[in-house]
Design goal:
The chain has 454 residues and is α/β, with parallel strands linked by helices. The protein has 18 helices and eleven strands. 43% of the residues lie in helices and 13% in strands.
Length: 454
């Protein structure tokens, strides 16, 4: 998820952190109970407890992790979610699952909630390209979101480089699916067109000029947009479409896809320019980035077995109802297209200490450690009451009873955190959404600790 500076943001909308206009119901105080007590329906907790698969250690050969990888392996694409953008154990579990899926289940593609150029650098390293860098330094230097610059990502990158070195017939690629780099994407696509039609490139470059300055290309996507007007953004968006068409006509498919990414980044952040009006944003607007990430994932993956590394919010496999109504996550598009070939894994916690930026702080500020405990009437609390240890739950094995059907149709609190979070727990942290078929697999961690940043 992006680091945002605007008072109203994707984080605010998706998790109802400060948007009373969208989610007035969040003003109602949450049900409370005795201090520290988790209140959940014992019947549903018991059903989940009966089919919980324990994960005793977060190590590659743990039987619970092996079994979970086997469950995910039936899919063409698995969405690997995380409870926060700043915690360690949920990211480590994703890395371990990827390693098992690569070794034992023909996984060949890791799709990451990250931009094209930064992930390309990681992929070059994983592919065995000449370098004097250790994996940790390669991750530090890559232009990817700060939340990905962790020990877990460095260790996974080192493991992939080792795998690719001895399995050249079964290489694994890392590819970014995000669209928050319109300046660099437009510049690279334009340079590709210039090699085959300099006249067309020159004509298109006029409308793209505000995106092509050294200052614009060096800025974070959100800050770059604050340097251009809405009119300039519209002209650049049209130019990116023209650029994509010219590149496709010239047979430069990869460059055309890069031009499309540039257009996506301008379209998905339409109201966040220098003179933009974010008050005009709608649920469809907040969903655009997710839709684009899903479309990119499908275009990149083709028939390859793949995983999508992202936040719980993005990987959930359907259109949420309740307080999430109107939002279309990436997983919904993937489920539409792949059906049962897409599986969504979400991760929860009983207690968590994680890194995040408080609302209103500068996006470049150092994140702080925040803490949370499972609160009543949340998915966290339900899973914590079903297992006191790390475990996973396969929703496909739940009995088809009226009780389960009622649980699936009744809103439950989703207490998920992205790049920003309130320093103290707020009612508005939690979005109440019926589980429906949004999740295929759920994981509970008794304790999450802060991400180990590089």
């Amino acid at each position: 998820m992006p680091n945002r500076t605007a008072p109203l943001s994707r984080r605010n909308f998706l998790l109802a952190t400060a948007s009373a206009g969208w989610l007035a119901a969040c003003a109602t105080p949450m049900a409370t109970g005795p201090a520290g007590e988790v209140q959940q329906a014992p019947g549903m907790a018991g059903l989940l407890a009966a089919q919980a698969v324990p994960i005793r250690q977060l190590v590659p050969d743990d039987p619970g992790i092996v079994a979970l990888a086997h469950r995910l392996a039936v899919s063409q694409m698995a969405g690997l979610g995380e409870a926060t953008h700043g915690s360690h154990q949920d990211a480590l579990l994703k890395s371990l699952l990827i390693q098992d899926l690569v070794e034992n289940h023909d996984l060949r593609l890791i799709l990451i909630e990250a931009n094209r150029t930064g992930t390309d650098q990681l992929n070059t390293y994983a592919a065995g390209g000449p370098t004097g860098l250790l994996a940790a330094e390669a991750v530090r230097q890559a232009p990817i979101l700060r939340v990905l610059k962790t020990e877990v990502m460095a260790d996974l990158l080192a493991w992939l480089r080792g795998w690719n070195a001895v399995n050249s017939d079964r290489p694994v690629r890392l590819v970014g699916v995000d669209c928050q780099a319109s300046s660099q994407d437009a510049a690279d696509a334009l340079a590709a067109l210039a090699t085959v039609d300099s006249g067309a490139a020159d004509a298109i470059s006029v409308a793209l000029a505000p995106l092509l300055t050294a200052e614009a290309k060096a800025a974070r996507h959100d800050l770059m947009l604050k340097q251009v007007t809405s009119a300039q953004r519209r002209d650049a968006e049209a130019a990116c479409r023209m650029l994509e068409s010219e590149l496709a006509r010239a047979g430069l498919g990869n460059a055309a896809f890069t031009a499309r990414r540039a257009w996506q980044g301008l379209n998905a952040f339409e109201h966040e320019t220098l003179d933009g009006e974010l008050s005009r944003a709608t649920p469809e607007y907040w969903s655009r980035r997710d839709v684009f990430m899903a479309e990119n994932a499908l275009a990149i993956a083709g028939s390859d077995k793949s995983v999508l590394w992202g936040h719980n919010i993005h990987v959930e496999g359907g259109r949420p109802r309740g307080q999430g109504a109107g939002y279309v996550p990436s997983g919904a598009i993937l489920r539409d297209r792949l059906g049962a070939g897409y599986l969504a894994l979400v991760q929860e916690f009983a207690e968590a200490a994680f890194l995040a930026l408080p609302p209103g702080s500068d996006a470049d500020a150092a994140p702080v450690t925040l803490t949370r405990k499972a609160r009543p009437d949340t998915l966290n609390a339900l899973l914590a009451s079903a297992s006191a240890q790390t475990a996973w739950f396969n929703l496909a094995t739940l009995p088809q009873t009226a009780e389960v059907a009622d649980w699936r149709s009744t809103p439950i609190g989703l207490d998920w955190y992205g790049a920003r979070a309130n320093p103290v727990p707020q009612v508005s942290d939690i979005e109440n959404v019926p589980p429906d078929t949004l999740f295929d697999v759920m994981v509970i961690h008794p304790k999450l600790t802060p991400a180990r940043m590089l």
